[in-house]
Every structure is written in structure tokens, then in C-alpha cells.
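User: hey, got a sec? need Fluoroacetyl-CoA thioesterase folded
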Amino acid sequence: MTDPSPPDRASLTAVLRFTVTEDDTAAALGSGSLPVLATPRLLAWCEAATCAAIEPVLPPGGTSVGTRVVLEHLAPSPVGRHLEVTASVAHVDGRLHRLTVGARHLSGDRPGAVVGAGEVTRVIVDAERFLDRLG
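Assistant: Yep! Here you go:
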């Protein structure tokens, strides 16, 4: 029996689903006053998807850290709205992984409407060595 080949880094994708709650709103997070999905929460969900997408290629003791984010928040999402957030590896250069991210409504009057789109760059690091450098 042979070991399975490692995943092709360029084909790594993750899809996560979320429901907007009161705790996810701009009013709750202090990024505005309206009861709609806050941009910081959208970003956190996109980053969670990027972590999930590259998790299969992390070495033992490895993790990834975000180093760059470009995100457009294109449509509002009220409390109760269901969203799908995707992340796909677009570029790999050694430890650096650049991923495209997107979020769409799964419910409401415009299912499939794009809520957000962008790009997140993550770098794979050894968790212990990374933390040791913090002093």
C-alpha cells in the first residue's frame, strides 16, 4: 500500500456557512450603528475559510498567519440571513498562500447575491517557533 499523495495546493478550497446573529452586526461590534452584518465579522468568516482551505497541507506543528487582506463588503445582510463563504487557493509560493474569498447570500429575497469578495494572504509557520519569537 502506498501513501496517498498530498493535496494539490492550487486546488485547495473551503466552503463555510454562517447565519447572521445580533452579535455579528455592525452595531454590536462597534463598526457602525446598523443591525446588519459587520465588515469585521465578514472578514473573520473569510479568514476562517482561508484557514480551513489550507489546513490539509499544514505540516505537523504548523499553522498559518494572515499577512494581507483586501476585502470589499458589497451588500448588506440582516440578522437571520444565511451566508456561504468560500476560500480558494489562487497562488502558492513556498510557505505563502494567496486565496480568493467570497461570500454570498443563501437566503432572503436575492439568494446568490454577492456580499463580499477579496483576497487573503497567509503564510505557513511553525507555531512553536512563531510564539517563541514573541519574547
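Quick note: The mean pLDDT is 93. Let me know if you need anything else on Fluoroacetyl-CoA thioesterase.
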